[in-house]
Write a structure and sequence with these properties.
With 147 residues, the chain is of the alpha+beta class. 47% of the residues lie in helices and 20% in strands. The protein contains 2 helices and 3 strands; from the N terminus they run ααβββ. It has a 3-stranded antiparallel β-sheet with strand order 1-2-3, covered by helices on one side. The termini are far apart. The relative contact order is 0.11.
Length: 147
């Protein structure tokens, strides 16, 4: 009997020594969970911003390529015409045109062409400029050859 009482006292004393430890453990666990949550949300936010920037660059690149291909394949401006050569931008084409594409809102395209030599010997330098909200985003150049 004495043994049981002593053992019970030891257990009560041990329990008193542990008082508040569970609270500290819980607060530390919640703090770590909060830190991990903030890191996770920051990573998602950063990836969303990065994807928006990449999408913008892809739009600009696709518009420039499509415009350059249209300009190289069109016969709308003969080589014997008088400079400055006038090519239509993709955003000005009729909807029924096979080259007509949906240009995202806020974007615009400017196309200029100049004879590489004077007089024009059948080679034109084509410059395509892509704008968004009036700001130039990309300028690309290529050549159109009279075949």
């Amino acid at each position: 009997m004495e043994r049981r009482k002593r053992r019970l006292r030891e257990m009560v004393t041990a329990a008193r020594d542990q008082c508040g430890v569970a609270l500290i453990d819980t607060v530390v666990a919640l703090a770590l969970l909060g830190v991990f949550g903030v890191v996770f949300l920051s990573a998602i936010s950063t990836s969303t911003i990065t994807m928006a920037g990449i999408e913008d660059k892809v739009n600009v690149d696709n518009l420039a390529r499509a415009q350059m291909e249209y300009t190289k394949n069109t016969n709308s401006c003969p080589y014997d015409s008088v400079p400055p050569y006038d090519y239509q931008a993709l955003d000005q084409l009729n909807p029924g045109s096979p080259y007509a594409i949906a240009v995202p809102s806020g974007y615009s395209i400017n196309v200029t062409a100049a004879a590489l030599h004077d007089p024009d010997d059948g080679i034109q330098e084509i410059t395509v400029t892509i704008y968004r909200n009036g700001n130039s985003l990309l300028v690309t150049q290529g050549y159109k050859v009279d075949r």
